[in-house]
Each structure stands twice: as structure tokens, then as C-alpha cells.
Design brief:
The structure is a single chain. With 113 residues, this protein is of the alpha+beta class. Among the domains are: 46 residues, no CATH class; 31 residues. It has two helices and two strands. It has a two-stranded antiparallel sheet. A hairpin with a 7-residue loop joins strand 1 and strand 2. The longest helix has 26 residues. It is elongated and about 80 Å long. It starts with a helix and ends with a helix.
Length: 113
């Protein structure tokens, strides 16, 4: 198709370009008629947030370092304990935490009875 033919193309048609293949001209698909539209933002669902942090488990702060600073001058006010958890350990921890949260309302109703 020439650029003039593309400009004059009926609005119900779309051109699909796939590398290594010839261009395809086909009718546009109405996404609002898709059976799973209810799973998208057009169907009322919340938008997908890529990279969202569900469980923030640590925080770090950096202290500026200068060569004049001597380690002995630094005061350690309390003992610091660090644990390094694998991804599997964190998944297990959060699963147990979720189970505990799900069981809490049931425990309260049993205590009242």
C-alpha cells in the first residue's frame, strides 16, 4: 500500500506489521466485547502495578565515610543482630503470617462463646 492508501484506509481496519512477514490488513477488534474485559481497567479492575513492593522487610541507611574518621570514635549504643533470609524463608514466613491473620478472628469468636 502507498502512504496515500494508508491515509485513506477505513477506520475499522488496522495494519499489523510483524518483522519478517508481509503486512496484514484486518478489521480492528473491539476490546470491550472481550469475555475477560472485567479483568482489565476498562472493566473496573485496579491497574496492574509492575514492581510494587508488598512486603518491605528491611531498610538501610548509609553514613558518609571520611578517611579522618576512626572506627574507635564511633559509639555503638546497642547490639545489632542481622538475619539474612532466602526468598523461600520469606515466603514461608509470610504464609505463616497470613495464616495467623486469617485465624485471629476465629479465635476471638471462640473465646467469647
Amino acid at each position: 500500500m502507498t502512504p496515500d492508501e494508508v491515509r485513506m484506509l477505513d477506520n475499522r481496519y488496522a495494519l499489523l506489521f510483524i518483522r519478517g512477514e508481509r503486512p496484514i490488513k484486518d478489521e480492528k477488534y473491539n476490546l470491550l466485547k472481550h469475555p475477560n474485559i472485567h479483568l482489565t481497567t476498562d472493566g473496573g479492575m485496579l491497574p496492574y502495578e509492575h514492581g510494587r513492593v508488598d512486603h518491605a522487610v528491611a531498610s538501610m541507611s548509609l553514613v558518609p565515610y571520611s578517611p579522618d574518621m576512626v572506627i574507635e570514635e564511633m559509639e555503638i549504643s546497642e547490639e545489632i543482630t542481622c538475619m539474612l533470609w532466602s526468598e523461600e524463608d520469606l515466603e514461608t514466613y509470610f504464609e505463616k503470617l497470613k495464616e495467623i491473620q486469617l485465624n485471629e478472628p476465629n479465635n476471638e469468636t471462640k473465646k467469647e462463646a
